């Protein structure tokens, strides 16, 4: 039987691969499909496990070591809290933490949205005219080098403490990566493509809208990936300087309060929450980027 | 150069179409770059309606410069140049000229139908008409089942077909092709040559100017071959390829084809 199959097949090496699937395919094609799907989803979950397990193991070991070392050494929680202290502090103050997170998210998202809209718009303006780019872009770079912390008090004087000032600080920190990335993207359109649009009598606006912005999209999204985490940092820095208390203070405000009261465990909880927020924000933008580029850009095709 | 003027076209065709049949006229055209490099010198050429003209020559002989001048991408520094009876810039605005480059220059984020209809979109042609014309030209190049496909899913030869379809969509009087098949394998190249000739023969009024390095390609496609030599770029000679169309694989292996190839090669060596 084996011999027969081999002699029918032109390529002998197919024999071993083909013969087990032949009976299945012949008798129940549906069953074979099901089996194929099951095995592919099985390999997917196996892949997730192999990706997730090593960092998880490290995390558990790290937390356990931390807990044990601090417990053994008897260091006071206000100097260095154990993981269990942090969890307790977070669960005792979970309502305040929730309010703080909500406030900070709102500020970061607003600042980020503003930086995307204005960053792209400004980059398009600069890309439309070389003269404008040459005369204005250096100042954009200089503006970027001024530490935000140094100008923050001015922003508070102009816009008052609270939401407005904080959103503007988050925006200022997140703005430049979007601007510079978009500008590079707009300026790196293929010469041939630009010639083609020129030869087909495209207007400047059509070239921007139909060619240069879509071509710059991978760059814009790369800028957004940098800026989204920065906007969280910006919001928290803004709250240090311009945060207002009451029931609406954000994470940055909560951190300053916790530090003056020596609530170190809660301070850790706030810091970790901010980190998680930055990561989630980044993952969201990353997912958006993959979704937009998946079908046509090399950077997203194999991910 | 006076010999190249004398080598102008089959009088029969020219006489029929008259003065209005002149699509490209070059008189003593020269181009010197600001750094002093002479790109082309003393180019005289008259291209009539319905011709298929190949430009052959080594790199740096000014083939692409001549194309860019006709397209209006760069200016000439001496002589007189007329395209479609006017200046290159004005001619371009008439939407009668189309272009194909060596790279397919398709928008990677746009479906084939959107890529192919791009010249019409830029002109503000209504969507219904755009789609109809897009389907027409994609059918012409044998890709009408791929309307909604993105360019990256296609092979190099198919991308070039799409690029040609895009050029044909505005039913151009003048088609400029700059080494369109240069990056393709020989088999794909030959089948695209056949298809291009078929399309050109269906529309007797379209004139094709075609740049190539490939002597065989020039001898297969053209009604006339413009042989160019470098440093400074000028026309060495213009050779007639009188073999009638349709030209098939039989022509590719015929002694006549061999003679044409030989003649072009000999002129190149001078």
Automatic annotation (TrEMBL), chain B:
Keyword terms of this UniProt record: ATP-binding, Nucleotide-binding, Transport
SUPFAM superfamilies linked to this entry:
P-loop containing nucleoside triphosphate hydrolases (SSF52540)
CDD domains in the record = ABC_NrtD_SsuB_transporters
The protein's matches in InterPro entries, at most eight in alphabetical order, are given as:
AAA+_ATPase, ABC_transporter-like_ATP-bd, ABC_transporter-like_CS, ABC_transporter_ATP-bind, P-loop_NTPase
Q: Where is the ABC transporter domain?
A: 24-255
Check the record and name the Pfam families matching this protein: ABC_tran
- Protein's name according to its UniProt entry: ABC transporter ATP-binding protein
One annotated GO molecular function: ATP hydrolysis activity
